[in-house]
Amino acid sequence: MIERRKQMTRDNVSRLINWGHWFAFFNGLLAMIIGSRYISSVGQPDSLISWGYLALSTIGHFTFLAFIVYVLFVFPISLLLPYSKILRGYAAFIASMGLYILLYDTIIYDDYGIHLSPFAFDLAWQDLNALLHSTSYIITPLAIIVIELTAANFIWKRIDKIQKKQWGNKVVLFVGICFVSSHLVHIWADAANVTDITRFDDAYPVSYPATARSFMENHGVDSQADMDETEVHKTSNLQYPIVPLQCKAEKAQPNILLLTIDSLRADMVDDVTMPFLSQYADKSLKFTQHYSGGTQFDSSMFTLMYGLQGNYSDKKDFDIIAPVMNQELTRQGYQLGLFTGRTATELASMGAIFNGFTPTISESDDGTATTDLKNIAAFNQWQQTQTSPWFSLINLSAPQDYDTPVGFLGIETVKSPVPLKPAQKVLFNQYRQSLKFIDNQLSELLPTLPQDTIVLITGTHGQVFTSDIEDARRDLSPSNVKVPLIIHWSKMQNGEINYRTSHYGIAPTILSKVLGCTTPSEEYSSGRSLLEPNSESWIYIGNSREFAIYQKDEITVLSRYGKYRIYNLDFNKRLDKKMSAPELIQVMREGRRLYQN
Fold first, then answer.
1. Helices 2-42 and 168-192, interaxial angle, to 10°?
2. Model confidence over 409-425: pLDDT tens digits?
3. Distance in angstroms (rounded) separating the CA atoms of residues 284 and 259
4. What is the pLDDT of residues 378-401, one digit of tens each?
5. Is 494 exposed, middle or buried (0-12, 13-18, 19+ CB in 10 A)?
6. Taking phi first (over 0 means left), then psi (-120 to 50 degrees means alpha), and beta for anything else, what does residue 62 get?
């Protein structure tokens, strides 16, 4: 008798587990339906192969998520409480909650461009009325719970018939093939740079498609596919620019030199460390509260050239769409020259930022300081041969590596104005030597430029005194993002601009003040002209995974996992307070503004 009861219990548990598997599969199908909303936010695929990838990814991803929820929350209860009525009600509740969360995530992603996280939840909770503006968001949850209860009972009553048809193994095999195939296709797409597939990387929550680009490059396989630079995703909902630019070229077109110096801190441009640049700034327009757009060369240059928030840099559309500033310079007959120590592979990985430029890449085994010398020499030779107006971008990198050329006679060491550890003190003074080297080069370069040249000098980012590159990249403190900006132009009065500005304003300034563009900057940029105080009281610095939002009285730093911390403006004290939602909501919506649904 006891054995029979045990057997009945085992049979009942087995039946419940079978039921649970089919119930999970049903919820995977429901999750696919709700998840289709993400596609409208990102934009539909352009080709049959991308549609095929998206179908494989959708089936594999959402059924996998449904199965994980089942394993974590329902399967243990099947063993502890093997009572069908209790389990069906409980499973319907858990499934409904999972679908509610997914539905809420689609709303947040559509509005802010990010998935649910502690930051996103707090932000959305304070913006709930604006997000849930339709009655469908009230009716839909009620419909979901009704569907879940109906499906739970329907599957339970027919579980024996379903089992007799032996569909289980076929379904598992089909879903498994979809899951594995989607990752294999993505490995190929990532290696071949098929952006119509890789642009869906962040579309689904908790999605981490497999990649193989670094592996293939390390083994000598060319991972760069030929791409049509003029191609635009036919079904992408990106509108950049929102309207075509209206520009009228000036009769006298000035040359433009943009000098970007890696790791140039704003507080180091003084009479002791960089005396020439300090005096040059006094004879120019100097921006005293200027911020870069990122803590790395690529993220900072994206914000400078496009004039857009750094979170747009993760969008694959910009792998093939050049900045409107590049396009307009080319249209007006400018010759574009790029002088850098970055390799061709590094430049290619940055997408279309430098499309239209003729790159001159300098290399040296003696360090970045020697490379910088070669860059300046190459520019001098290039600009002497130009017969039409030119726009040149020179990138100098020695300060980032604390480098100086062999035999360089620097300046005396000084005490740091802020407390530093012994190793940091060494880096601080070596950093100053590197800046002095750069200052010497500028003193030789700038006086020789043609008189009609507009000169812009800024840092790609600041510097924190650490030898750990990853620590430096993740540091979003003012030391690492506050940089100088100096504009020298005979038509511009000397003086200081003391309101806060950022790299976002450089492209709109060149387009409006130099290239004669009358189109409002909000039609193509997140910034405004540097010569006009910005109406926004915040600056977005970083990319979509790690970023900081500089506000009037505080700095909000977001981690890659969605956790946030709030600091004072000196970044030396963490504030125990909630985020300022209205401004942050504006920030996140600005990051979606160019994607029109």
1. 30
2. 889 988 888 888 888 99
3. 15
4. 999 999 999 899 999 999 999 999
5. exposed
6. alpha
